[in-house]
What we know:
Strand content: 15-25%
Number of strands: 18
Distance between the termini: 21 Å
Largest sheet: 10 strands, mixed
Helix content: 25-40%
Number of domains: 3
Number of helices: 14
Shape: globular
Radius of gyration: 26 Å
Amino acid sequence: MAKLPGKTAYAGIRRTTTRKSGFNSHPDSTGGEFKMEAATGLQLSPNTPLLIKFIFPNPKDNTYIGFGGFYRSDKPVKVEIDNPNTNKNTISNYPLPNTSKFGSMWSSELGNTSVTVSIISQKPTTIYLHNMECGLIWHDAFDSAKENGQEGYLQNMHTIMPEAGFYTESGEIQITNDIVSDSEDFFELKSCNRCARFLPINTHNEREHLSFSNHCVAKAPCIHKGFGILTDIESGELIDLHFGFQLECRFCKKYFVNMPLNWQRTAAQMKEDGQRRRNFELLIAEIYQSSPQLSYRLKTGRELLDDIWKRFKGECFNCKSVLESKRKMHIDHTRPLALLWPLDETATALCPSCNTRKRDRTPSQFYTKEQLIDLSKIVGLSEDELMEPEPNHNVIAELLKRLDWFFDEFLTKPELLKERDGKITAELVVKALDKVLSRSQSTKYEFSFVGEYNKRRDGNLKFDENEDLNSVI
């Protein structure tokens, strides 16, 4: 997945490099090479599907099975996958004239029944296929994931297909209704600096990425050679891109960069990156131009995670279970993020189970009276603040002073304009803020973020006190 723009805007100066992936780039590739590869078209009659059947070998031991390929058409098409082995399939059917892809990968334990892909159009169409492949898949990186206890990298493998198709034994591909046309088209390919393969990219709309994630999004245009400036290996011509692409393909990025580095990352770094993904945390960071964890590090010269671990003696405050390590510790906001309280020195150490159960509850809704007395002594908040926590009025005051910035800049960030389950994230954020105002006991706010959003956007949002907004916070 492409990183959201602005994700590290308030991370401060990066720490001194403490780790390396241990992998070098391929001697035959810089990742900045470009070439075009021709493909002959197949003619599709209206409403007559092109069927591609993938037949797999019998696995000899526990391995992965997969299939996939890239395609482009001159008219819109619909792609469907009949896969009896798993319901986890990838279909990226991008708007024309972009190249699209489909595929999947699953454990051989789930079966090796043949898969059929159907491509159909309502109009006469020519479709071009690239790298249709299937078979048994394995890579040394999968062994590394198991050896290092990083089995999480072996889940949802379908999301990196078909570029993860390192086939150890090929299967059979049968194409029906394959009427060859007289036309020819070209797929745009870029090299990977790790595996040296040439894999498809889209230059018409670079955000419709295929085998490579984008390089510069928040700071586009990308002017970095190899990323945003590619070299055609045949003509020597320079290809200027707007966003550019990573040097590594998505497979190599995952297994040769992220996986080795994440294995060596400190617990503080893992927790810190997780916080940046929360919308309320991002809002607070943008208001104060600094993340609470960065502020703590600058103020004390220590990591917040380390101090919380010591303060709670490596135990879950609620159930008193011993936490295996800092990585296993969950840091709870104590006063919930749902009330605009950031993660700071008042945080509480919990085990994963207790943190999941607490969610956005206030301390008094989760802990006993005796626990609140003990917690007050540890985190430095008064018993009254723990019994009846108010929203963070300082953050609310800053927001009310900067409404133009909030509505015209913050809410228009690309990640807040995304639609999830039929709902726009920005709209959920304003509803969540109205819920914050409604929970204030000490101050009566005669303002509605939902109402202001409706006035500025000609919207028709309605505030529902009972709406579950946990996913947006």
